[in-house]
Amino acid sequence: MKPILEAQNVTKHFPTGGGLFQKKGLVKAVDGVSLSITPGETFAIVGESGCGKSTLARLLMRLIDATTGDVVFDGKQVTTARGKALSDLRRDVQFIFQDPFSSLNPRMSVGRLVGEPLEVHAPDLSKSERQAKVSALLAQVGLRPEHADRYPHEFSGGQRQRIGIARALASGPRLIIGDEPVSALDVSVQAQVVNLLGDLGRDLGLTLILIAHDLAVIRHMSDRVAVMYLGKIVEQGTTDDLFERPRHPYTRALLDAIPDPDDRGSASRARIEGEMPSPLNPPPGCAFHTRCPHATDLCRTKVPMPQTTPDGHMTACHHWQDLGLTPRQTTASSRSPATQARLELYRKATEGAKIIPVASKTPDREELT
């Protein structure tokens, strides 16, 4: 299947210093990332805070410009898009921010915030049709039509996140990028929003790119996962394969950091010692060698090249074939009752509002009633 989004050797370097007493430098936030995402899939990006995953997400939809590399959406260049091409990209690719309040104009009502993309991308809609579409969007994310007259400061953090999701859906996008889209929500609301995003992906054929720290959300929702460390993709594969048979020591340590009440303090669980190096001065060779218990002289001097197995699993590690990492046990019985109950909430199908392509220029009259 032809990819809907491709990134080839994308980098983003931020200059620092240069003052009277400051030395100039470059923060290598994203350092040579390549991705290929197929239509309709849910692709997750995980890693520690500061690894560059949020910066990568912004590069993919051109919220910031890449230093080098190419991003292609549906066969069209993103990195050089101008004018109408850039406007079409804004319609087809939408972003859900981690902090919704920072992306919502406090002087605009919720109705205007959610309806603004319709004014830009569906100008043929009448005022009454646009209001009906806004009401439908709010219902889709669990808000009431009368909320359209209120302002962002009158809502809780979780409700503001729902407003941000409704605004992202307004243009009828084909791809949505979510930067920690459920991190600001209560656990019960998380389940609703996770189910909502899953339903949208299924019913509208959306492609989703999710950045999340909650590995339970990723395990439930995603089809493939990419693991980032210090601006680079160190492992990538299908969700089940990566969770059950991680090849990279960093991935194994991330997964083993998930609390397990039946395995407290086990010596077999991988641990990450120390802190992530500064992207201003990354170590030579493999960036993870300063924290890796398996590091050798080769790791300290030579950058590992990505190696891909016949089943499509990619690993950037010199010794992944020699480490002999045993498969992880992820059966339901090894999870705590609270975690298991939470996963059941995620799995439960929603039967809420009808999912509709909101930004259609020729709206179905039945949708407006």
Automatic annotation (TrEMBL):
GO annotation, biological process: peptide transport; transmembrane transport
Membrane topology: Peripheral membrane protein
Gene source species: Jannaschia pohangensis
Molecular function GO terms recorded: ATP binding; ATP hydrolysis activity
Keyword ATP-binding: yes
Keywords annotated in UniProt: ATP-binding, Nucleotide-binding, Transport
Name of the protein: Peptide/nickel transport system ATP-binding protein
Signal peptide (UniProt feature, chain positions): none
Taxonomy, superkingdom: Bacteria
Cellular compartments annotated: Cell inner membrane
Organism lineage: Bacteria, Pseudomonadati, Pseudomonadota, Alphaproteobacteria, Rhodobacterales
Entry-linked NCBIfam families: oligo_HPY (TIGR01727), PRK11308.1 (NF008453)
